[in-house]
Design goal:
The protein is of the alpha+beta class. It folds into three domains: 2-170, Beta-Lactamase, CATH 3.30.450; 174-296, PAS domain (Beta-Lactamase), CATH 3.30.450; 301-377, Winged helix-like DNA-binding domain superfamily/Winged helix DNA-binding domain (Arc Repressor Mutant, subunit A). The chain is 49% helix and 20% strand. The radius of gyration is 23 Å and the shape is globular.
């Protein structure tokens, strides 16, 4: 009963924090204690610059926080390990690398061990071509390694953090009360629409108006949003109609509806309800029941490593070595970057040659580039 009350209070606090960012540190403190750790953070990473920043944190040493992004972000095993774990499943160090091997990495010896940290549990909250967002709880040596109870507790809170991140991105309530809300939405490249229960367009950003004016995928008829794809039109009308009943009607992750343009172009509309709990305040001024985010359907550049790993049946460590060969250079450089012996790198390199039917490091670079090129051209 105590855990249920603790979880209920934490969930309410998470949504309150979307309206008052000053609450995030307290939320992360409660989340870290509930999951079973000593430090927690919401982290955003940029795909373009391959860097990141802690958006909000609890219990983190500022020195080591800065060190992570300055020096250790590329050495973090979780960086490549995430490609081997389902998006909605939390993962720990042992899920992405043998724990004994993890203890030999520079990331552990130089960054985690000095802080007394022994493990982490991560939940991915959002990903796009622009980057990703994650929620992470670090376990101190007094907490022990991540166990099934820790994972289960992470599963309980992660969906609410995920929704909070989406809410914060799409409908910052403070901006919703001022003209700056429109300015913020106009800075989004994809089409952004606030929709009421009858599919009426309450607000659209510049990209959204461009889509409506082009008429290739979306139209405005009497102020109502009408996709050129009849099936999508029916599906979206049903989603908007039930969105007024809250998240339970649409789903905790929102819903994605595929759209087809006049020339056969593929788009996708992501619809997020705005009518549950604390989020009701964000949409009340606009009478909107849903936010719809429309973009052309593209494969994400970040998916390339996942596709490579799946295609050639690579292990997490083999993928780390492959990407390091591309990003860092030869065997000595990769060994230094990953904090392992050169012989270890050579062993993994031999397996990579065998699995990919290549014979040189240059061939591996070309292989990765081949997977990347079509993604960038989409």
């Amino acid at each position: 009963m105590h855990d249920e009350q603790q979880l209920s209070g934490l969930i309410g606090d998470i949504y309150d924090a979307t309206l008052d960012p000053l609450r995030w540190e307290g939320v992360l403190r409660k989340a870290a204690h509930f999951v079973g750790g000593s430090t927690s953070a919401l982290v955003a990473k940029s795909a373009a610059s391959k860097t990141g920043t802690v958006v909000y944190t609890y219990g983190a040493d500022p020195h080591y926080r800065d060190l992570y992004f300055d020096r250790y972000i590329k050495l973090d095993p979780a960086k490549t390990g995430r490609f081997f774990v389902d998006f909605d499943q939390p993962y720990a160090a042992a899920d992405v690398i043998h724990y004994e091997e993890f203890l030999t990495t520079r990331f552990y010896k130089e960054w985690m061990q000095p802080q007394g940290l022994v493990d982490f549990v991560v939940s991915r909250l959002a990903k796009s071509t622009m980057g990703s967002a994650t929620f992470v709880v670090f376990r101190h040596e007094r907490d022990g390694l991540v166990d099934e109870e820790t994972r289960q507790r992470m599963r309980l809170v992660a969906p609410h953090f995920r929704r909070a991140v989406l809410i914060d991105r799409l409908t910052d309530s403070k901006l919703a009360r001022t003209a700056m809300f429109a300015v913020a939405l106009d800075g989004i490249n994809a089409g952004m629409f606030l929709i009421d229960a009858t599919a009426r367009i309450v607000h659209a950003n510049v990209a959204g108006h461009d889509m409506l004016n082009a008429g290739n995928v979306l139209n405005s008829v009497g102020g109502r949003l009408v996709p050129v794809d009849g099936q999508a039109d029916q599906a979206l009308r049903e989603v908007f109609a039930v969105a007024g009943s809250g998240d339970d009607a649409v789903g905790i992750k929102g819903i994605a509806v595929p759209l087809t343009g006049l020339a056969g172009e593929r788009y996708v509309a992501h619809v997020l309800p705005l009518t549950s709990g604390e989020r009701r305040r964000a949409g009340v001024a606009y009478t909107a029941v849903a936010a719809m985010f429309v973009r052309k359907a593209e494969m994400e550049a970040a998916a390339a490593p996942e596709v490579i790993a799946s295609t050639y049946r690579l292990t997490p460590t083999e993928l780390r070595v492959l990407l390091a060969i591309v990003e860092v250079g030869g065997v000595p450089e990769v060994a230094a970057a990953l904090g392992v012996a050169e012989t270890t790198v050579k062993t993994h390199l031999g397996r990579l040659f065998e699995k990919t039917d290549t014979a040189r490091q240059a061939d591996l670079v070309k292989l990765v580039a081949g997977f990347g090129s079509p993604l960038r051209d989409c």
